[in-house]
Amino acid sequence: MDASGPSMFSRLIKVLTERMFKHLRKWFVTHFFGHHRRRARLVSKDGRCNIEFGNVEAQTRFIFFVDIWTTVLDLKWRYKMTIFITAFLGSWFLFGLLWYAVAYIHKDLPEFHPSVNHTPCVDNINGLTSAFLFSLETQVTIGYGFRCVTEQCGTAIFLLIFQSILGVIINSFMCGAILAKISRPKKRAKTITFSKNAVISKRGGKLCLLIRVANLRKSLLIGSHIYGKLLKTTVTPEGETIILDQTNVNFVVDAGNENLFFISPLTIYHIIDHNSPFFDMAAETLPQQDFELVVFLDGTVESTSATCQVRTSYVPEEVLWGYRFAPIVSKTKEGKYRVDFHNFSKTVAVDTPHCAMCLYNERDARAKMKRGYDNPNFILSEVNETDDTKM
């Protein structure tokens, strides 16, 4: 065996070991420290706002209890159901105590040994449990017929009227809150989806930022309106730093940005011109930018006539320069239009200028080349050439 064999084998093991450790180090850094490099988002992909209010004064928090209806509607389901159950059980138990107090004061309970001719305020209340059952029967209007109020004392009659009115109010408020929570247009917004990425490419000879949006229901959104906001940190000439400075980003489709015919997926686009906040960006500098593009879609739900808003956002890593969306709508042999959502967020690379300024400079150069000017005073005269050289 050649002596160089073990040395080559050891070098091979060394190279493989270095590659393995390099791969493990890269994986470790990506999975354990990569989240620290993620950009902070104000609006998540599903439209939730990532914002926290700190140092709110106690007086300001009391305003939430003044607008109790909106506060209850905004609560999560687990808190709402806790309030729902507590409101009914609490009112039944509270009025049960009051009915027990009426029976105790009037000495209707068995421990007082009432006479045979004694007429109680409420028949067949023998303790706290029976008082609770009578309170439940009264408030939910079950009326089994075993326990009932007599005309013996006015206190019981007044308490019966008060509990009946308060029970109707509690039923109306809690059942209305549950129904309003279920029918909120916020749930309708879940069936509106945006593409995972935004793309930048040429459209109609102009450099545009394109986003695809789709309605997953056959019912339409009436009077839909779409627009965007670009959020970024800016420094004013006076030296003031403004975090989350907002700039309008106008999105349109071929027919405008209002009253969209939202029956099939639409590709909305923003023209990157001199008034666009993306005009100074380029394909090379886009990943280093620090911004968040928030896109809004407002509309009226056709079935309920309630307005809803759908939101999503895009950070620089989700904006692909030099791509366009793959086709998604086709026509079958039967004459029906088919939407293939498999290609909804699929993109295709295309030739695209690496900056908006380059596109406009190229167009200006081509326009100047096509320009020509005729000089009417210029006359071309023919000259006869003679050979004056003689041998």
From TrEMBL:
A GO cellular component annotation in the UniProt record: plasma membrane
Domain Potassium channel inwardly rectifying transmembrane: 43-185
Gene3D superfamilies: 1.10.287.70, G protein-activated inward rectifier potassium channel 1
Transmembrane segments: 83-105, 156-180
Site keyed Role in the control of polyamine-mediated channel gating and in the blocking by intracellular magnesium: positions: 171
Domain Inward rectifier potassium channel C-terminal: 192-363
Location(s), subcellular: Cell membrane; Membrane
Swiss-Prot/TrEMBL catalytic activity: K(+)(in) = K(+)(out)
GO MF annotation: an example: ATP-activated inward rectifier potassium channel activity
Alphabetized UniProt keyword annotations: Cell membrane, Ion channel, Ion transport, Membrane, Potassium, Potassium transport, Transmembrane, Transmembrane helix, Transport, Voltage-gated channel
Pfam family, any one: IRK
GO biological process: potassium ion import across plasma membrane; regulation of monoatomic ion transmembrane transport
Membrane topology: Multi-pass membrane protein
Family under the similarity heading: Belongs to the inward rectifier-type potassium channel (TC 1.A.2.1) family.
UniProt-recorded name of the protein: Potassium inwardly rectifying channel subfamily J member 1
